[in-house]
From TrEMBL:
A GO molecular function held by the record: thiamine-phosphate diphosphorylase activity
GO CC term (a single one): cytoplasm
UniProt-recorded name of the protein: Thiamine-phosphate pyrophosphorylase
Lineage: Bacteria, Bacillati, Actinomycetota, Actinomycetes, Micromonosporales
Organism (species): Asanoa ishikariensis
Role description: Condenses 4-methyl-5-(beta-hydroxyethyl)thiazole monophosphate (THZ-P) and 2-methyl-4-amino-5-hydroxymethyl pyrimidine pyrophosphate (HMP-PP) to form thiamine monophosphate (TMP).
UniProt KW keywords: Thiamine biosynthesis
Length: 196
């Protein structure tokens, strides 16, 4: 599976309306991979939401990644979650915040990691001071697919890619304005030709 350069993470508390409408608008703007968080929802409600979001992504052959070990075909793990057993999901990502976590994720076979916070972010409090581009560069050397997360705006994309990030992961910015996906994709497109 080819990973897109942009991951959209959900947070229904930051949406102006229903989460599925925000995701639909983000997909219309070009998003092709969405990480469903919303871990506080009861199991049945979360499963129904996952099915609805998968239906939104299906016509564009997008990927729904579900946070947590019970995600199905594509999962996104927290830093301390155990790696899934067999059968292995087709896509496994992990949230990381330091070099040890990134190295461990690479060693266990994660397909990608998000590293955060790269910039100051109200959505990602409590994980220490922002890494900045220099800190991101250190972590990006440990595995081939690192997504910069935390306070990343379209204006930061070039610096994140120059630091070695494969792409960017965005939550608050896209949840508040799903149409901003086009700005992120434009910024990413301008860096792809310059970076491997």
């Amino acid at each position: 599976m080819t990973l897109p350069r942009l991951l959209v993470l959900t947070d229904r508390t930051q949406c102006a309306g229903p989460l599925p409408r925000a995701v639909e608008a983000a997909v219309e703007a070009g998003a092709r991979a969405v990480v469903l968080r919303e871990k506080d929802l009861p199991g049945n409600a979360r499963a129904a939401l996952a099915a609805e979001l998968a239906g939104i992504l299906a016509p564009v052959r997008g990927t729904l990644i579900v946070a947590g070990r019970a995600g199905g075909g594509a999962v996104h793990l927290a830093a301390r979650d155990a790696f899934p057993g067999r059968p292995r999901p087709a896509l496994v990502g992990r949230s990381c915040h330091d070099l040890a976590e990134v190295a461990a994720a690479a060693a266990e076979g994660c397909d990608y990691v998000t590293v955060s916070p790269v910039y100051p972010s109200a959505s990602k409090p409590g994980y220490g001071p922002p890494l900045g581009p220099a800190g991101l560069a250190t972590l990006a050397r440990a595995t081939p697919a690192v997504y910069a997360l935390g306070g990343v705006g379209p204006e930061h994309v070039a610096d994140c890619r120059a630091a070695g990030a494969y792409g960017v992961a965005v939550m608050g910015g896209v949840m508040r304005d799903p149409h901003s996906v086009a700005e992120y994709l434009s910024a990413l497109h301008n860096t792809v030709e310059d970076q491997p």
